[in-house]
Amino acid sequence: MENSNNTGKLIGALLVGAAIGGVLGILFAPDKGSETRKKLSAKGGELSDAMKEKLKGIIDTLKEEVETVKGKAKEFADNGAAKTKVLS
Asked: How many beta carbons lie within 10 A of that of residue 81, not counting itself?
């Protein structure tokens, strides 16, 4: 879990860095204001899509972790119940 957390942080940092670089590149480009706004809007849409995809990945990972914990809890409960029956 720790490795996926570090990977998530790295990907998030890369996305933020790419977004900042893209915005700065557009702002300093010699285009008209209307063209710059269009480019910013497009970059914002790309960033939004990337963040949605990243969030989906995080949610999928969390779902997997929850299922793993549920399975381990059930196994633990079943083992405890079996040991209780043996001791009775």
From this structure: 10
Cα separation of 44 and 58, whole Å? 21
Whole-number average pLDDT of the chain: 81
Residue carrying structure tokens 């409960």: 77
Distance CA 38, CA 32 (A): 10
- 9-12 contacts: CB < 8 A, separation 24 or more? 11/54, 12/54
* CA gap 40, 14 in Å, rounded: 18
Chain position carrying tokens 């269009």: 38
- What would the two tokens of residue 47 be? 């960033």
Q: Which residue has the tokens 């497009």?
A: 42
Taking the whole predicted model, whether its pTM rises above 0.85 is answered as no
CA torsion, points 33, 37, 39, 44, in degrees to nearest 10?
Answer: 160
